[in-house]
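Can anyone check this?
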Amino acid sequence: MKLILGSSSKFRRAVMDELGFEYEVMAPEIDEKAIRIDDPDALVLAIAYAKADALVGAVEGEALIITSDQVVVWNGEIREKPQDREEAKRFIMSYGEHPAVIINGLVVTHVPSGRRVESVSAMHTWYMPIPDLAAEEILDTSDVMFCAGGLQTEHPLFRHFMIHTDGSDDCAMGLPKGELLKLLAEHGLTVNK
């Protein structure tokens, strides 16, 4: 069965590549900011569903469309991708004050039946205070502008200041492997990984 990754994210493509999947990439054209929900779990699922809805009509033949979304929750604030460098720096430096929770919504849609399965997963992270100079270096040497909450956990400096995590590292990549394999299996696609 054909697999379609409904994302242009290099992080999500890296997860698919690591799993050894053959897949196509289709980037959904949606206005994520038009979808506003105060519950972060509901928000990431609503955006993942909207991404799938945007792609279903363009897919020919039988396929599974994989869509996802991610936010970071910090001290009750839902954070998406930073709007500018100043906001990204504020985000980065704040992670030493309160833990961050990375939340992923994942939806796998079967075409042509329209059957969908979903999951929400989370990863909690705790950091030491991140000083100004370190935040500037992170901004200069990373892709944080493309990461929810400006939080690129695999960056060496983020790793340096990390105290503890609870949850799977691939959750931070925007496509949790275990959840993806489980949802693919619910559609009858079993992968030995």
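Reply from J.R.: I decoded it. The CA atoms of residues 32 and 47 lie 6 Å apart.
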